[in-house]
Design goal:
- Helix content is about 55%, strand content about 20%.
- The protein has seven helices and nine strands.
- Strand 3 and strand 4 (about 190-195) form a beta hairpin.
- The mean pLDDT is about 85.
- The strands form two sheets. It has a five-stranded mixed beta sheet with strand order 5-8-9-7-6, with helices on one face. The protein has a four-stranded antiparallel beta sheet with strand order 1-2-3-4, with no helix packed on it.
- The N and C termini lie far apart (about 60 Å).
- The protein is of the alpha+beta class and about 280 residues long.
Length: about 280
């Protein structure tokens, strides 16, 4: 079971397993099947199907590992690129929450200056988060059916965790500045990595013309609601990867300036001036 045949067989087994589970749940929710009958159907059909799917999955993973694929590529191949991306997105959210709770930054350490970019940008997302909490409480009170109410509560809590994971990801994945490396990020996505010596000038300057990420006038804008507040003028053009939800849809562009929203533009500009003074640039 290698290649296209294994892929089709695996997909068919997963689809049948999901379809049977959904039909079983719907029949039980509508009262057509009793709880005992639904459990019996689940035991008689779902468990064997799950075993078949598990065996095929293991065989495919072993085959792909023998071909030399990395685990990320295997995940893409086994469950599909979209599903794999969503799983990685959710795992990153949980990791970001863990970092946030422990007050840590991804990639931070000795000699690394984290450059935050969330100040003044979290008002609308936090308002949306609060609205979701209120909506969850209202739905839980108004929906009279216990099973549906419980399902909606579980989905609502899961959704709130995802939103909080996105917000935590921006806080815990700042830009990173060291003596030898500048890393510009948007959440977990790396936009560009370059040597700080490639920055000719760092100027704290407010630009209002763009409030969403874009490339214009040979510059990349990573703004907040009030635009950008720091210009990094480069000594030569660099290629950047623009942020997007799906990694495969991220486009590239060559730019000569990075216009960023950061928490403390004066401190970042002063750090660049100090480094340039030390190197005699």
């Amino acid at each position: 079971m290698i290649g296209a045949r294994a892929r089709r067989l695996h997909g068919a087994a997963v689809a049948i397993t999901i379809m049977v589970a959904v039909v079983n749940a719907v029949l039980a929710a509508l009262g057509i099947l009793s709880a005992g009958a639904a459990f019996g159907l689940w035991s008689a059909v779902e468990i064997p199907l799950a075993i078949v799917v598990g065996v095929i999955t293991v065989l495919r993973i072993r085959s792909l590992r023998r071909e030399g694929l990395e685990w990320n590529a295997i995940l893409d191949e086994v469950i599909g690129k979209v599903a794999a991306h969503l799983i990685r997105f959710e795992i990153r959210g949980y990791r970001a929450i863990w970092l946030f709770v422990h007050r840590r930054y991804d990639g931070a350490g000795p000699g690394v200056m984290p450059v935050g970019y969330t100040r003044g940008t979290m008002g609308i997302p936090m308002a949306f988060l609060v609205a979701c909490v209120i909506e969850t409480a209202v739905v839980h009170v108004l929906v009279p059916w216990p099973a549906i109410r419980t399902a909606l509560l579980v989905l609502s809590v899961w959704g709130l965790i995802q939103i909080f994971g996105i917000l935590a990801g921006r806080i815990t994945h700042p830009h990173l500045l060291t003596d030898t490396r500048l890393t510009i990020r948007a959440g977990h996505q790396v936009i560009v990595e370059l040597d700080p010596r490639e920055v000719g000038r760092a100027v704290a300057r407010r630009r209002w013309e763009h409030t969403s990420q874009t490339v214009a006038d040979n510059a990349l804008y990573l703004p907040g609601p009030d635009g950008t507040c720091l210009d990094l003028v480069l000594t030569e053009p660099v290629v950047v990867r623009r942020p997007a939800f799906f990694d495969r849809t991220r486009s590239t562009a060559s730019v000569s300036r990075l216009s960023l929203q950061v928490d403390d533009p004066e401190a970042v500009a002063a750090q660049f001036r100090a480094e340039q003074f030390k190197t005699g640039a």
